[in-house]
Amino acid sequence: MRRSALALFAALLLPVPAAGQTLMGRASVTDGDTLEIRGERIRMAAIDAPESRQHCLDGAGQSYACGRRAAMALADRIGVATVRCEATGRDRFGRLVAECFAGSTNLNAWMVESGWAVPLIRFGGRKYESYQDRARAARRGMWQGQFELPEDFRRRARN
């Protein structure tokens, strides 16, 4: 409870960027849907990647660290490119929420299409559903086997 109160207080101290504000720079990958640019944590809007400690089953039924694989896929895709993130606001943890690009590649869409993230429909992810359909059909990323939705994994881990 105290931690969430501190997070809320910290979020109130941060200026909420207007929709469309852009942050650019060299990005480091925290996990499959979170980046950091110049000390600013950025939650990629409308997608959800597996948690760093989350495991999935591959096509042969073998467990693998899909959360770490998702983060590595994003890091590999970005490489040394400059990343541009267009802000839509902040989340309840104070992170900037944004759609991010490496060159002309929409990284949010790329993560879903590569099978390492799923769209968050209730947060505007409907626009990524066709990317998920392509990932599922091609059995890319997590779609190669079985996985628990990241939000279900987090809920189960809390209980």
Structure, explained:
With 159 residues, this protein is an alpha+beta fold. It has a single domain (2-143), classed as OB fold (Dihydrolipoamide Acetyltransferase, E2P), CATH 2.40.50. 32% of the residues lie in helices and 28% in strands. The chain has a 5-stranded mixed barrel with strand order 1-2-3-8-7. Strands 4-10 form a two-stranded antiparallel ribbon. Strand 7 (82-90) and strand 8 (96-102) form a beta hairpin. The chain is globular and about 45 Å long.
Tags for this model:
159 residues, alpha+beta, OB fold (Dihydrolipoamide Acetyltransferase, E2P), five-stranded mixed beta barrel, two-stranded antiparallel sheet, 10 strands, 32% helix
Q: Can you tell me the residue ranges where pLDDT is under 50 for at least 5 consecutive residues?
A: 4-14
User: What is CATH's topology name?
Assistant: OB fold (Dihydrolipoamide Acetyltransferase, E2P)
- Assembly form of the protein: single chain
The CATH architecture comes to: Beta Barrel
The pLDDT mean sits at 91
What is the approximate shape? globular
